[in-house]
Amino acid sequence: MGALTDLIYKGANAVAGLTEGAVNDAIKKYGAGRKIAFPDTAYFFPAIFSATGVKVEKLETLPACVGVLKSLITNRDELGDALNAGLATAVGAEILEGLKFIEGSPYGDGPGIGFVPDPIIRSLGVPLVTGDIPGVAVVLGEAADPAALARVVKDYQSKGILSFLVGKVIDQALAQGVKMGLEFRVVPLGYDVTAVIHVVTVAIRAALIFGNIKEGDLPGLLKYTKERVPAFVNTFGPLNEVIVAAGAGAIALGFPVISDWDVVNAVAIPGALEYAGDYDQTVKKSLELRNIKIKVKELPIPVAFASAFEGEIIRKNDMAVEFSSDKNPTCELVVMKDASAIEDHRITVIGGDIGPSSPLNMALATYVEVAGARMRVDFEPVIERKIHHWFNYMEGVMHTGQRNLFRVRIGKDALSKGLSLRHLGEVIYAMLMDEFGAVVDKCQVSLVTDEKKVKEILEKEGMPKYEARDSRLASMTDESVDRFYTCILCQSFAPAHCCVITPERLGLCGAVSWLDASATKELTDTGPCQPIIKEGVRDEKKGVYESVNRAVDAATHGSVNSVTLYSIMEDPMTSCGCFECICGILPEANGVVVVNREYKGITPTGMTFGELASMTGGGVQTPGFMGHGRHFITSKKFVHAEGGIGRIVWMPKELKADVTMKLNKTAKDLYGIDNFTDMICDETIATDAEAVVAFLKEKNHPAFAMETIM
Ligand code: SF4
Ligand code: ZN
Description:
- The protein has three domains: 2-289, Rossmann fold; 307-445, Bifunctional carbon monoxide dehydrogenase/acetyl-coa synthase(codh/acs), Chain M, domain 3 (2-Layer Sandwich); 479-705, Bifunctional carbon monoxide dehydrogenase/acetyl-coa synthase(codh/acs), Chain M, domain 5.
- The chain has 23 helices and 22 strands.
- The N and C termini lie far apart (60 Å).
- It binds iron/sulfur cluster and zinc ion.
- Residues 125-126, 490, 509, 576-578 line the site of zinc ion.
- Iron/sulfur cluster is lined by residues 126, 487-490, 499, 507-509, 511-512, 576, 578.
């Protein structure tokens, strides 16, 4: 132990000294009253806030924090004490990084992004719970063999693991052609070792956001990160004492450290600090230590296939072929057929395939026929929407839209690797059988580029199907069904949270509709979505059902025992943290504001999205605040108990534009108002409450005629 603890203390003391000096210098230069903050977070300096409850808002708070930090460094040769010194190093790193933001973001031009804002963490909720992102890797240092390092990072990428890069490895990976950015699941943080704190605070804020861990509860925090955040650290190259001390901080949070430095071999702590000299063992060992299991998808295609490529954009100059509804007939359709009409695994290309001499613009019908004893017509659109993801997972293929309005681009690189339409069919077949094998017994896929044939499929089958589905959806109300569904997928992060999914209220993540939930139940009988038979209605307006309360009570192990489906003021549905939008009351306007995760500015409540979002979450009910999906905004059940959508007084412009058509229709149906969205204020009109109220009064907004909302 001795040698290792010595290094940890040496590093921790060095960081403590640096921090103290930097704080003193900053106070001398800017004055103790100078404001200081990380961008777009409701959690101040998250490590300090979560561990102690102290809110760092000005430089004057920092000297006391440095005092606490120093007291954590006891210099005693005990592992627990040494890990505390590691935590002290994390606090020091947070302060050093925070000071960099004193004059705005220091991460402007370089590849590093530095601090990760709250909304991004919230957006990672669903991919983490679904296992789409199975783990988080911190890759740090400078590798002796850059090519091998790139293999490690690409291996993580192909497995969907989110990697954060710190140090020279950023340039090394870039030079080896690793694609970077959140959309590629490879995020360069910064060159200084202290930048590692930005991953640490992602884990810490996950505990505050999803886990309802209260500030100051350090043991609770460490338990949460250890048990629920599947992160680990890989270090490359010899470690100096600061890296070792930071590594001790990671270990204290429950994240194992895997190092290629041979010295580590002698001082390894099994399960916490391990040696992997052979780079080809790094990934395997890391995943084993964190017990991360990867479902391998071996697909017979010439390009990489991973969820990490979902966000890849193919620009005009890089594309070889485009299938665009703007230019040619297109259709994407999954239809249920009789088993006798389908030859399983038949992939057909009708019309010319793509290749070196194919035209730039082509027509396309992606026509998928399925059969199965447990298949239902209702599952067709659920499967069909997946095509978007499966196509995007292919490196060099981009897909946007759906049905007869889509755009698929194939990159030049992918084409030169030999990608053909047949491969697209193989991908659909393999993924469909993998994910929907419980209901689909047979599947055949046709990719049609023959223009006439595409038109025929669209007109004869596509359009009638789309219309039938739309009218089925429109007729599906909460009253018209006999059951709702629970969804507890987010419990792996938010143990006390349960969504109740109804036809008119989708899950707050926006990813689970009532049809999705019913398909999930069919696919995995004991899975996250369980039916709630509608029984014991107590209050229709608020949406109170005895059976719903019983189901939520059971699903949350007694944490929540009464919820309303349609009220924001009385027992509102809980939030996990990954909601697409947050709704909060604006008493001055007797209404509510709705804010989407992407909106970065301030709202008339005086809070940003992140600050509003921090008012709820972790499975807690906070009357007056409610997380929800985008599509819920246009529902007749939205804050129904408080008067419905007529309560909406403010939304960011982008969100308003997105929901205008449907929202106006709902307002017309409910209140007979035309162009309701013109009455709703946005940030281009006003963001302070007084001006918002003036605007609303001028427009004669319906909220003023409603009962007082408080
Ligand atoms: Fe999580 Fe609710 Fe979405 Fe299910 S529906 S994934 S519980 S947010
Ligand atoms: Zn969630």
